[in-house]
Amino acid sequence: MFEICFETGLNEEKNSNDIEFMETLLDRIEKGGIAAPAPIEQRWTASSSSFMSPANGCVGGLHSWIGIIMYLPSENLLQRNAITNAFKTEYCKIMRNVGKDFNATSHWAKLEMPENIEERDELRKLMREKYPVDLFNQARNTFDPKGILSNPIIQAAFDSN
Prior knowledge:
Layout: E1 2-10, H1 17-32, E2 41-46, E3 61-68, H2 77-100, E4 105-106, H3 117-130, H4 133-143, H5 152-158
Antiparallel strand pairs: 1-3, 1-4, 2-3
């Protein structure tokens, strides 16, 4: 499962980002020949006051969440690995690329481990663009100075070294 979130106006004045996103995503899935299972999840929430929420925004704001999934029906390990690889390298990539035009962000607590330095650096850049990383790291250092509640994915996304 991979899920992103983006702003789609206000409760009283919605924009069409949510529909435009889905039309673009579906077009790219078809053009890419992705065997995308249905349904593609789409839901809406109010803005959150939490700085670390992908739906952080003003009072009365509206956000759309889009979730994609790829099922692993086979017990064959090679086939399951091929499906997982296609999901990460093709399907998720399409959604990330479409999401850039909508300032979409995945939830930082649902990230996948970057596979190389370039992916890690891109992830860190995206996290800094969306979240108050320095403030988050200050809280981490204050309340968890030994990193007991951390893990390699959090370190990859938020550490500065």
